[in-house]
Amino acid sequence: GAVVSQHPSWVICKSGTSVKIECRSLDFQATTMFWYRQFPKQSLMLMATSNEGSKATYEQGVEKDKFLINHASLTLSTLTVTSAHPEDSSFYICSARGLARGGLWNTEAFFGQGTRLTVV
Amino acid sequence: AQSVAQPEDQVNVAEGNPLTVKCTYSVSGNPYLFWYVQYPNRGLQFLLKYITGDNLVKGSYGFEAEFNKSQTSFHLKKPSALVSDSALYFCAVRPGSGNTGKLIFGQGTTLQVKP
What we know:
Order of helices and strands of chain A: EEEEEEEEEEE
Structural class of chain B: mainly beta
Order of helices and strands of chain B: EEEEEEEEEEEE
Radius of gyration of chain A: 14 Å
Number of strands of chain A: 11
Oligomer: heterodimer
Shape of chain B: globular
Largest sheet of chain B: 6 strands, mixed
Shape of chain A: globular
Strand content of chain A: over 45%
Radius of gyration of chain B: 14 Å
Number of helices of chain B: 0
Helix content of chain B: under 10%
Largest interface: A-B, 26 and 22 residues
Structural class of chain A: mainly beta
C-alpha cells in the first residue's frame, strides 16, 4: 500500500510555544489530507480536511486559529499547534488520499505513524 | 446522523480460537467499509475494505470481514487468533453520498489474545 510519513513521532514542548507536525505522502499524490486527534483508548476525532492548494475545512468545535493547517503541495501537509497548552497534549494522526501510480484513485486513506504531543 | 458502532470495548480470545470483532453502521448511500488496526503509539494500518462485489472480503494477516447489507454490519473475523493480533481495531465507513473521502470511525475494540 501507499506510504504516509508523519514527523516527528513525538514532541515535548513548553506551554505557549508552537509545534509543527508534518505529513508526507511518499509514493502518491495526496490531493486530500485529513488530520485527526486521538485521546487515550478512544477513537479518532477528525479535526480538519485539507485539499492541496486550498484552505482547510475544519470540523465543528475545532479552532482554526489554534490548529493551522497548510497543504501547499501534493505530498506535504502540516499541522501547527499554536500557543500550545497542556490540554492540547494528545496523539495526532494524519491520513492521505489521492492518486496512486497509474492515475487511479485510492479508495482507502493511508495513515501516518502519528505524533505524540506533550505540552508541559 | 451517520455513525459507526463497535459494541464491544474489548474482546478476549484464546490463541488458536476464532475471533470476531463486531461493527454496525448507519450511513447514507452505499458506503465503503474499512477495518484498520492500531498498535500502541502507532498510526492506523489498513486491514481490508469492502467497496462492492463479494460480501466476504479477505485482507491482511489472515483477517476477513463479511458485509451484511440487511443487518448493516461489517464484522471482522479470523479463523485462528494469534497473540500478535492483540491490538486496537477500528471499523470505519466512508458514506456513499459525496466524495470527500471523510471517514467515520467506530469507537474501537481492543482485542486481547491470550496464549
